[in-house]
Amino acid sequence: MEQYAIQTQSLTKIYGRGFCALNNVCLNIRKGDIFGLVGRNGAGKTTLMRIVAGLALADNGYVSVNGATTYEENEKERRKMGCIVEAPGLYDGLTAQQNMEARALLVNADKSRIRDILATAGLEHARDRKVKNFSLGMKQRLALALALLNEPEILMLDEPVNGLDPIGINEIRELLKKINAEKGTTIVVSSHYLGELEKLAKTFGILEQGRLVSVVTAEQLAASVSSCVRITVANSLADTVKAVEAIGRAGYKVLRVQNDMIFAEGGQNEILEYGRILAENGVGIRSIESLKEDFESYFIRLIKGEGK
């Protein structure tokens, strides 16, 4: 039987004069999953994470953490969470070590683990520096260290790589993968870095205007993204016209034309056929290659209602 770390049913949140931040969101996140929340600014990602973490109340629907069925059980299970939601709560006048010690008192965590956790987050060298002197990326690392302090079963991370350079992003990604693999920690992460999220998450939930548009596994995503063939012709005007006409006569669809490049439907299997068609029609060809749609392009198609 499938076990879920987080379940929501008909979750709805309305702000102010009728702004619907979440609209009837039903979600099941499996234990041990790395779940990526994807959506534009204002899509409802942070609101959803705040409600799941108990930092905000829903106007309708309910949340169940680790199968909890009552408010008291949910609150008990939420103590097993580590969260970074919106701006991390850091004490700028304290050092990284002192921030960790203060949090340890709040969550009844073992202080002897602090140095190791700071090292894991890449901050051992800065543990005695005041947070007010930290860069944004260093503050993100400290926030992650704080979230790991109570050895959580569930990590809720809202934009955890915001402000990090490419090396730091890679380090955080590998750290989260390691935590998930070694401890079985369920990780829920939102990010605007769609290409980066694609490298981390095992399942994706796509939010648009408060609605859960789609939930797909990494395998389903790989199968859903589109591919196309890019043909670069030798003569940008004469060959482009001939190529477009020849492709149409052969029953294939031209997706778009950009200078001397023609993007047509198909993939790797159609390359030889396109080469034959164009050669028979006297089209000069510089190159033909198959292109795979990236996650960002798929996401844009999906929220526009152009893909499933």
Structure description:
The protein is of the alpha/beta class. It folds into two domains: 4-223, P-loop containing nucleotide triphosphate hydrolases (Rossmann fold, 3-Layer(aba) Sandwich); 226-292, Protein-tyrosine phosphatase receptor IA-2 ectodomain (Alpha-Beta Plaits), CATH 3.30.70.2470. It contains eleven helices and 13 strands. The protein has a six-stranded mixed sheet, with helices on both faces. α4 packs across α5 (136-148). It starts with a strand and ends in a 5-residue tail after the last helix. The model has no long low-confidence stretch (mean pLDDT 91).
Number of strands: 13
Query: What is the third-level CATH name, the topology of the largest domain?
Result: Rossmann fold
Instruction: Please identify which CATH superfamily of the largest domain we are dealing with.
Output: P-loop containing nucleotide triphosphate hydrolases
Percent of residues in helical segments? 25-40%
Rg is: 24 Å
SSE succession: EEEHEHEHHHEHEHEEHEHEEHEH
SSE inventory with pairings:
Blueprint: E1 4-15, E2 19-30, E3 34-38, H1 45-53, E4 60-65, H2 71-78, E5 81-84, H3 96-107, H4 114-120, H5 136-148, E6 154-158, H6 166-183, E7 186-190, H7 194-200, E8 203-208, E9 211-217, H8 218-224, E10 227-233, H9 238-249, E11 254-258, E12 261-265, H10 271-280, E13 285-292, H11 295-303
Give descriptors for this structure:
2 domains; 11 helices; 6-stranded mixed beta sheet; Rossmann fold; 308 residues; alpha/beta; 28% strand
What's the short version?
By secondary structure, the protein is an alpha/beta fold.
